[in-house]
């Protein structure tokens, strides 16, 4: 099946039949119809005016309705929008490792997960600004809380990960998702992005979920190793100097401490998306690692499937941890958390004071009633944990054998 064809075409893989219609991005043939529906949604108009308060919305709608297909949408609409976000909310975005990629191949980019919206968007921004094709993006259906959001992400080359299903349905969804990713790489010659775990690591200690690796290996008709080699896994490290959601994550840690059954609301998810999108992130760096296919070959003789998956997760984790960009505030956080001066050569007193002032300013944004001094101390400690864990994990990775 050629790129751009309708996803209604059924694929047969491993003697199972899969229809991707309900999860895949909208095809070019559907694009204008779905866009025409999107721009009539009041929620979409509200979101656009919120993100771009100076927009001439009727003119913006005319421009959107003139866009013919997915690639044009990403190049003519998303690229300028992301450039605006980079200019307004970062101190610069850099991307390393592009020279290691074979531009004739399609890859599965697997990264740590920091921002709900921007992780994959900024990665694709890096591809677009370097003349490379963008990736399709995996997004959980738990974030698609309104129909117009579903339309928007599927117009923007996103495919849906079904979550919170009962066991039988979850297995069916995992097989469908695995088949779709393999189909993307093999048949559409389209790269994909997926986070290494469901949800963000609130404490910024990133570790690959074994269930994710198992899902990716469900399809292909071979062994775990053979199936994973088919999709060309590439670890990607994402580093934001500042996390705009840090105080929200600290708040969640406190609420879970006070009530282990605490669950976030849809409003909480929307606030996280808005905050991550529009607030300052400092410097941002993406480091693209090498495809792990050669490393996977060394596991061919390991018969225990559980051990194979564990080693693959270890390999991905080591690659991601090694690729972090470490900033002065990470050293400050580590030293303050551990009551040491081990890394004081990597920051000045002014930088340390400015970072601690930043922490207090973020804690002032917490909107909870009856927050005690001890509660604030706990949230401060959790924020220091968030900012020190990338350094801690990078140091650990440098001492480990990251090969398998």
Order of helices and strands: EEHHHHEEHEHEHEHHEHHEHHHHH
Provide the spatial order of strands within the biggest beta sheet: 3-9-8-4-7-5-6
**Euclidean distance between termini CA atoms:** 36 Å
In quaternary terms, these chains amount to single chain
Number of DSSP helices? 16
Q: Which structural class is indicated by helix and strand composition?
A: alpha/beta
Query: How much beta, percentage-wise?
Result: 5-15%
Helix content range:
40-55%
Q: How many β strands by DSSP?
A: 9
Largest sheet: 7 strands, mixed
Itemize the secondary structure elements and their pairings.
Blueprint (H helix, E strand, L loop, with lengths): L10 E3 L2 E3 L9 H11 L3 H10 L5 H9 L4 H20 L3 E4 L11 E4 L6 H12 L6 E5 L6 H9 L2 E4 L5 H20 L5 E4 L14 H7 L7 H6 L3 E8 L5 H13 L7 H13 L5 E5 L4 H5 L7 H18 L5 H11 L10 H15 L9 H27 L5
Parallel strand pairs: 3-9, 4-7, 4-8, 5-6, 5-7
Antiparallel strand pairs: 1-2, 8-9
Helix pairs in contact: 1-6, 4-5, 10-16, 13-16, 14-16
Task: Give a structural overview.
The chain has 404 residues and is an alpha/beta fold. It folds into 2 domains: 11-242 and 280-323, Glycerol-3-phosphate (1)-acyltransferase, CATH 3.40.1130; 329-399, no CATH class. Helices cover 51% and strands 10% of the residues. The chain contains 16 helices and 9 strands. The strands form 2 sheets. Strands 3-9-8-4-7-5-6 form a 7-stranded mixed beta sheet, with helices on both faces. A two-stranded antiparallel ribbon has the order 1-2. Helix 1 runs antiparallel to helix 6 (147-155), helix 10 (246-258) packs across helix 16 and helix 13 packs across helix 16 (373-399). The longest helix has 27 residues, at 373-399. It is globular. The relative contact order is 0.12. Mean pLDDT is 93; it is low at 1-15.
């Amino acid at each position: 099946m050629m790129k751009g064809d309708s996803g209604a075409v059924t694929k047969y893989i491993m003697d199972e039949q899969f229809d991707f219609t309900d999860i895949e991005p909208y095809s070019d043939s559907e694009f204008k119809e779905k866009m025409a529906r999107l721009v009539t949604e009041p929620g979409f108009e509200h979101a656009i005016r919120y993100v771009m308060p100076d927009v001439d919305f009727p003119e913006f709608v005319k421009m959107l309705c003139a866009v013919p297909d997915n690639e044009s949408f990403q190049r003519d609409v998303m690229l300028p929008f992301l450039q605006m976000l980079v200019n307004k909310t970062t101190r610069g975005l850099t991307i390393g490792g592009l020279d290691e990629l074979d531009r004739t191949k399609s890859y599965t980019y697997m990264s740590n997960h920091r921002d709900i919206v921007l992780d994959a968007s900024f990665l694709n921004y890096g591809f677009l600004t370097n003349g490379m094709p963008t990736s399709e993006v995996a997004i959980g259906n738990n974030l698609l809380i309104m129909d117009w959001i579903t339309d928007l992400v599927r117009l923007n080359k996103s495919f849906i990960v079904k979550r919170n299903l009962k066991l039988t349905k979850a297995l069916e969804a995992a097989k469908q998702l695995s088949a779709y990713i393999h189909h993307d790489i093999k048949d559409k010659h389209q790269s994909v992005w997926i986070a290494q775990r469901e949800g963000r690591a609130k404490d910024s200690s990133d570790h690959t979920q074994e269930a994710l690796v198992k899902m990716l290996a469900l399809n292909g008709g071979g062994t775990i190793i053979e199936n994973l080699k088919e999709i060309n896994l590439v670890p990607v490290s994402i580093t934001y100097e500042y996390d705009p959601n840090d105080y929200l994550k600290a708040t969640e840690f406190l609420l879970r401490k006070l009530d282990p059954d605490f669950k976030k609301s849809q409003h909480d998810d929307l606030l996280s998306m808005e905050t991550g999108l529009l607030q300052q992130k400092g410097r941002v760096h993406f480091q693209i690692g090498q495809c792990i296919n050669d490393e996977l070959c060394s596991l061919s003789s390991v018969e225990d499937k559980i051990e194979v998956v564990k080693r693959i997760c270890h390999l991905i984790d080591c690659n991601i941890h090694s690729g972090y960009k470490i900033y002065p505030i990470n050293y400050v956080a580590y030293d303050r958390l551990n009551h040491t001066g081990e890394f004081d050569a990597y920051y000045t007193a002014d930088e340390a004071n400015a970072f601690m002032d930043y922490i207090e300013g973020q804690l002032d944004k917490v909107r909870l009633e009856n927050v005690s001094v001890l509660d604030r101390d706990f949230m401060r400690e959790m924020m220091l944990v968030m900012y020190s864990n990338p350094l801690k994990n990078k140091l650990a990775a440098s001492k480990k054998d990251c090969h398998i």
